[in-house]
Amino acid sequence: MRKISILGSTGSVGRSTLDVVDAFPDALRVVGLAAGGNLDLLVQQIERYAPEIVSVRNPDDVAPLRSRLKRNVEIVCGAEGASEVASLPNADAVIAAIVGAAGIPPVYAALKAGKRVGIANKEVLVAAGDVMTRAAAENGGEILPVDSEHNAVHQALRCGGHTEVQRIVLTASGGPFLRRDLDTFSTITIADALAHPTWKMGNKISIDSATMMNKGLEVIEAHHLFAIPPDAIDILIHPQSIVHSMVEYVDGSFIAQLSTTDMKFPIQYALLYPERVAAPFARLDLAKIRTLDFTAVDPQRFPAVELAYAACRAGGSMPAVLNAANEIAVERFLAGELPFTGIVDMVSRVLDRHAGNVAPIGSVGDALAWDGWAREEARGIDVALRQ
């Protein structure tokens, strides 16, 4: 029986994780939950899964949550509470799905405690990749990717040694604007950008898919996960989203991972690895798909991708700054304060301001400090863009 904690249990990845738990009741048991402000759903999860400890983001939610529960459970709160859930001695594995920089401290706590961590939050490795991989190596922790693309690479890499890898190929759906006239990008609405053609995701991730910043962040994440230089990581547009990613080996062989577009597959893989266990989830029918298309990324259509590559090559604090500036840019776009094309413009300006001050990231504190700096810079530039 593998005991797990879930960070972000009321979000889409957290709910999918609980679906996996339901599918394998003899193999998985929930011992810790951390959530945001959706108390209604959290109450249901607590009553159903009986965790030992629960964390809520807001301290003001502790008393209302306790009053609604029929069972006794330890309730903690804030960043310290999420870290306590992540490092729970009784937990064997952690699914980390707290969005944004808030996910960095609890993931670090889990790795310091020697846990297996299934990371669904790109920002953790983008902002503090060196810190996380070092914490895992020094404390017997393990990082397994839950993002479908990196999970696919992890599976494909089981077919050969590290020195046999030519390159990693991450696939991208292309989002809602793959074929939209470039001359109309200035009129893109929030509803347009949220209308992803393949995946059902949260607002922030959907906007990142529309700009393809998500794919740029995945390049940085892959660099840390697999110890691969950025120039050996490529991106191909694959609208069907069936091939989740590929690895090309030195002999010219490609190994690809295919499955339906369902997060339960990579979650199951991360929780039960190295075993493969029969699952009740929907299977892929290749005869119905018939074609698989691949095209190169258009840099004019998706300039965010090259920004991310440049940040990865620069290293140090630059990826943390990229990520934080992008979070604020997306937030302002969703608030109606910034045009869609202004998202990448804002991020580019913040990176330019940071170019002469790139510093090593040696700790979680360093990552969070540069994250905070970039947010303030982005907020100021946002004002300038609206004037």
Summarize the structure.
Helix content is 47%, strand content 15%.
Molecular structure report:
- The protein has 387 residues and is of the alpha/beta class.
- It has 3 domains: 2-146, NAD(P)-binding Rossmann-like Domain (Rossmann fold, 3-Layer(aba) Sandwich), CATH 3.40.50; 147-261 and 283-313, no CATH class; 315-387, RNA polymerase sigma factor, region 2, helix turn helix motif (Rna Polymerase Sigma Factor, Chain: A, Orthogonal Bundle).
- The chain has helices at 12-23, 39-49, 62-68, 78-86, 104-112, 122-139, 148-156, 190-194, 203-211, 213-226, 264-272, 286-289, 304-314, 318-334, 340-354, 364-386, and strands at 2-7, 28-35, 53-56, 74-77, 93-96, 116-119, 142-145, 165-172, 233-237, 243-249, 254-258.
- The strands form 2 sheets. The chain has a 7-stranded parallel sheet, with helices on both faces.
- Helix 10 (213-226) runs parallel beside helix 13 (304-314).
- The termini are far apart.
- The relative contact order is 0.12.
Topology:
Layout: E1 2-7, H1 12-23, E2 28-35, H2 39-49, E3 53-56, H3 62-68, E4 74-77, H4 78-86, E5 93-96, H5 104-112, E6 116-119, H6 122-139, E7 142-145, H7 148-156, E8 165-172, H8 190-194, H9 203-211, H10 213-226, E9 233-237, E10 243-249, E11 254-258, H11 264-272, H12 286-289, H13 304-314, H14 318-334, H15 340-354, H16 364-386
Parallel strand pairs: 1-2, 1-5, 2-3, 3-4, 5-6, 6-7, 8-9
Antiparallel strand pairs: 8-10, 10-11
Helix pairs in contact: 4-5, 5-6, 6-10, 6-14, 9-14, 10-13, 14-15, 14-16, 15-16
